[in-house]
Amino acid sequence: MLPIFRSDLQARLLLHLLTSDHGDSASDLARATGAPVPTVHREVTRLAAAGLLRSEHRGRTILYRADEENPATVPLRQLVLISHGPVELLRQTLADVPGIIVAKVFGSWAARASGEPGPSPGDVDLLVVGPVDRRALFATLSDLEPRVGRPINPTVIGEDRWARSDDPLVDEIRSRPTIDIVGG
Fold first, then answer.
1. Series of mean pLDDT values for 10-residue runs along the chain (184 residues)
2. What's this model's pTM, rounded to 2 decimal places?
3. For the chain, which has fewer Cβ within 10 Å, the N-terminal or C-terminal residue?
4. The CATH number of the domain covering residues in 85-182
5. Which is nearest to 82 in space by CA: 52, 123, 138?
6. At residue 67, what are phi and psi to the nearest 5 degrees?
7. What's the fold here for domain 8-70?
């Protein structure tokens, strides 16, 4: 992860707002990020005051969306996608892929996300468990890589291998930080 955002919440809010095609209220954003509404409200108010977001009143609700006329929006979207986007984009992309029982990000990306120090990951290691069509999965991931800004390296294994406790790869993945994408 690139330490360029004021907080992880700011990065997650920007990711949501800069990749959404509709406006969201502070309550919607709180649900999406798991943060308290007052904290989200303060953060989106700061981002709107800085000109990164537009706000629109709908009755008593304020909806926030990216200000597409701000020249910083496109490069900021690219930065947030590179630094925080892979997990969310993988969740959106793999949710409907048939045959995936479990999918997890592991390796350096998961280690950095859990707070382990080290250089920014150069790729995203992805474990996929289940009887998935490998060609379709690889094509889907290839299409996603330009948005993520780095290679995605899938490792596909069957349920029986994932269930075993004597497999070195499975043991290594289970002993280190992971991020759930599909299943758990």
1. 78 89 92 92 95 94 95 90 82 88 94 84 94 94 87 96 91 94 86
2. 0.73
3. C
4. 3.30.460.10
5. 123
6. -90, 100
7. Arc Repressor Mutant, subunit A (1.10.10)
